[in-house]
Amino acid sequence: MWLGELMQGYARNGQTQAAATCEYPRSLQGRSIASLTVEEFNCESPRITFEPQDVEVTSGNTVYFTCRAEGNPKPKIIWIHNNHLLDLEDDTRLNLFDDGTLMIRNTRESDQGEYQCMARNSAGEVKTQNAMLRYSNPPAKPSFIIQPQDTEVLIGTNTTLECMATGHPHPHVTWTRGSGEALDESRHLATSGGLYLQNVTLQDHGQFTCHANNNQGSVQATANIIVQAPPQFTIIPKDQVVLEGHTVEFLCEAEGNPPPIIAWTKAGGQLPQEGLHTVLSSGTLRIDHAAHHDQGQYECQAVSPLGVKKASVQLTVKPKALPVFTQLPQDASVEVGKNINIPCHVQGEPQPIITWNKAGVQITESGKFHVSGEGMLTIYDAGQADQGRYECVARNSFGLVTANMFLTVVAIQGRQAGDDFVESSILDALQRVDSAINSTRRHLFSQKPRTPSDLLARFRYPHDPFTVETARAGEIFEHTLLLIQEHVKQRLTVDLEGREFRYNDLVSPHYLSLIANLSGCTAHRQVPNCSDMCFHQKYRAQDGTCNNLQHPMWGASLTAFERILKPAYENGFNLPRGVGLHALSGGYSLPPPRLVSTEMAATATVTPDHQYTHMLMQWGQFLDHDLDHTVPALSTSRFSDGQSCSSVCTNDPPCFPIIIPDTDPRGIRAPCMFFVRSSPVCGSGMTSLVMNSVYAREQINQLTAYIDASNVYGSSERESQILRDYSEPRGLLRTGLLWVPSGKPLLPFSAGPPTECTRSEQGSRSPCFLAGDHRANEQLALTAMHTLWFREHNRVATELSALNPHWDGDTLYHEARKIVGAQLQHITYSHWLPKILGEPGMKMLQNYQGYNPNVNAGIINSFATAAFRFGHTLINPILYRLNDTFGEIPEGHLPLHKAFFSPSRIIEEGGIDPLLRGLFGVAAKLRVPSQLLSLELTEKLFSTAHSVALDLAAINIQRGRDHGIPPYTDFRVFCNLTSVENFEDLQNEIKDSEIRQKLKKLYGTPGNIDFWPALMAEDLIPGTRVGPTLMCLFVTQFQRLRDGDRFWYENPGVFTPAQLTQLKQASLARVLCDNGDNIQQVQADVFVKAQYPQDYLSCSEIPRVDLRVWQDCCEDCRNRGQFRAFTQESRKKRSAQYSYPDEKDKDLSDLISRQQDHLYIDEDGRNVTSLAKAKFTQDFSNFAVEIQKTIKALREQINKLEARLRQAGCTDDKGIRRKDSEHWMKEDCISCMCKSGQVTCMVETCPPAPCPSLELAKGTCCPVCRDPGMPADPPEKR
């Protein structure tokens, strides 16, 4: 038929002629093919008569697919596999039978899939349905067909590791290197056949592993890529300049394959052979004890078969040199009010650092002093206070040298610009300061406190009259100078350094002394009388006086804080840093403390300390309240106009508000935060009655400096008397309500204002508790600690009374007080400090070597104002309250801001035990430099709905500026840390670069950094809870507190050896057991975190202090233990055997009796021997010696008494002899009296002026009302 269609086409085109006839069938024989029709051809298209069926087969078997078809002409059978025609010729496993059947021999996995039969002839084609061949193979673990092989490759080229595996199911191939680390997909391309590595580097050198995995298992095959590379330096040595004697190390490291060998040469030759040159295995060249002949050129060579690399360095060795003065400071003199430069130049290697000291206190950069880079000291506005000996100290790593000079300040005779304004200014200052103080008192004490801040101010307001007068005098003195300065400001020229005026030439010395007298500055506490040695040898004075008998005021209450660095005031006198008109160093001004707080201190994240408990923080606060308490401002109103500091945002004394930045969320509510300055002490806090110079502002410590439990007993005789219970002579402290469940007393309630703390949530009134420190109510955990220790005193006093019923109340009180103070010392130094300072700090602190009367134990200002405030970073935002199984009590835990001034919660919510368990049963907050203070302390401190919450971090920074605390970098110099030029120089102590960047952003220059935030940002020394600078200050202060305390519990003679042994059994765990309401289980060390219950002990297992060693051993004790009794001291010095006269006869008769009992008669009865004869003779001799000593002591005492009786009268400070009871006027305002051989002087206090116009009459102290008709005398005639 196709031929007919072709010929028909040719005929139509007319281009080709062709002819063909049909032979068969006979009916069409002879006809032209082109003329035949389709029907006449009689063709039939294929038709399937039998279709193939699905089949399953296993590996290696034979399978048949049958297909039958009919058609005309006979159709051809074609097979299709997975939509592709089968190639029967290339695959010998396939056979097609004549009937169309497909045979597949030796089947394999690739044969599976869909098979389709197609029948085709000239009439058409037809296909069958798909038939499936399912290949069923038994599961098989992977096995490698091709394994990777070790391959060497040159660096920078490409290579492939081949890897192929089989298995059922088909395995998945992956690659790893080394011990299993993943491959860098950017450079390692895994293909189906292996691993392709591009641009091979030395890092590709190593072992690679091919992994083939399926559900039946896995196999691995490893191969090594061996990268061949010529040597390349990874660390190139650098030129060095070293000092003679130092060890030099030139680092030189290279890589390559094979690894290169490092060799060193000097000047092209071999290294010297004397043994001081060593090439370490790392390739480093070490030269020990470098000498001048070691300097020169050295060459590091990296050698391998693929090449050599070389690097040259130069070593310069300088001779070492201690600092040597090239210009020594010389004695000099300067007029009052002038500046002076004192040169001090040194040289040395390394370059020495120069510092200056005066009276042992390091001088710092301030408005008063400047030390140039070359070492020149400049003193601005010299005054009599600046006179004295100065020491230039030059130090480098090899040592230090010192040189000193004496500066004489010459007073200028004549009048000064401010003299004319002294009288009016002093009267104005008196009126302003007293008015502001009275306004503050009315606000605080004439009404109930409206806010927690009011209550805080109430409790911190001084109650002791002498404290008030001391602080008032300091304020009046400073404010008088400020008023005089305002009067004469128009006449003064601003000097080149930008200081507005000079204080020392503002008024003449005479008028300066007059200002001091009229303001009350000369009414200092008199030098204490330490003559009662029977008392002072045995017990502490309540106010800390007479501890150091050479310096009775050292460590006493109401004295100025000590300094280790000179204060840094903007004007050298009293103005805080950053308040002046001029930018600080480097052109940067100080950031607002609130900004520093929000950027660096505040954190919502708290990391628990898994090693120590929250008791670590609480003991620190309790101890701090035994050491220091700054006298706050007596007024919370401005002196200038009486406006409250809480309503103004200007630096107008005593207001010193904390400015809230515009970007701070609090800026919406208030532009500033309430803050007033600490009260100043007049002058430097000295006891002299003459003040002829202006001293830098100093602050007052209300407490005794010593660790003496003043927070339990008070820091003055007046406070101690208020706290004592005189109802019975038992030496007890006053008690309050009994806690009913335990029957143990709570603290007594405060009898004077303030008597009422904040109301509880239930609306009940909450009386404030009374303790030795006025801050006992500030937060509940602190109140619990005060309760604990007042109970401990009463427990000890009661037990001593039972042991010594003949002791009177005073003896019991002082002996118990002595024991309690010793316990505080022992717990602090043996249990608490080792956790804070760790092993490194305790080594620096050293063991106790005995009392040193040359050590001043006073509290250092920077320690109280910054360093010891590190405890704020340990405070948890929640006070946990736990029951006796250490679960939460029904009332729940307490957010810190709800624990302030709420003693009602102790009365109404479970007593003190839940709080105490929450301290020793819960972890402390870990100080992390990026997590300093909880938001409870920076955003909610003493907050109420109607007041601006305070920010403890901002307060700490502002208080440091108020106290003139020098910047952080100055303390680094004091502590011998590395000098700081830029913020990167801090990286050894502050490793976090983000924190250093914050400091840079805030302060601009390292010289501006405030002390407290830098201390807190320092990284902790391993094993401690402090950084390097904080460690330095802690060791300095705690050494002084221990070594300068005559009553330190380890000082021989303070306690007997037996008593000291018992005191060393003391622990806070024992105190908790004895004085908690019902504490039955504690860990042995309550500062260490323990697991409950396995790490807890029963209270019966905690060692006790055995007080029986305090028992008097005597038969007739009626006269023993009477306070101040002379017999107590005299008998103490006699032997126990002959203590009492009435025992003499008894002892002698006993001795004779013992002699008779020991007679021995020999065998023949002739010789009688006394075995006790020798002992009797010795005992009698000792008895006679003791009698002679006693008689001699009595005669000495009688002579002293007679001498004192003969000495009638006194000698005053001018050497004039005064009669007993004689009165005289030392100055217009100072009256003195001679009484009992001692001179006592008092300063007259002037009453409030009854009239507006006053004048000071000659020979009188107080101003009087001026007669309106009389002209005023000129100032010089008064």
Strand content: 15-25%
Look at the structure and name the CATH superfamily of the largest domain: Haem peroxidase domain superfamily, animal type
Query: Under the CATH scheme, which architecture of the largest domain would be assigned?
Result: Orthogonal Bundle
Helix segment tally: 27
Number of strands: 64
Average predicted local confidence, pLDDT = 83
> What's the alpha carbon Rg, rounded to whole Å?
49 Å
Tell me about the biggest sheet? 6 strands, mixed
* Outline: elongated
Number of spatially distinct domains: 8
Structural class: alpha+beta
Distance between the termini: 155 Å
The residue fraction in helices comes out at 25-40%
The CATH topology of the largest domain turns out to be Myeloperoxidase, subunit C
Quaternary status: single chain
Low-confidence segments, given as residue ranges, are 493-499, 1126-1177, 1270-1278
CATH class of the largest domain: Mainly Alpha
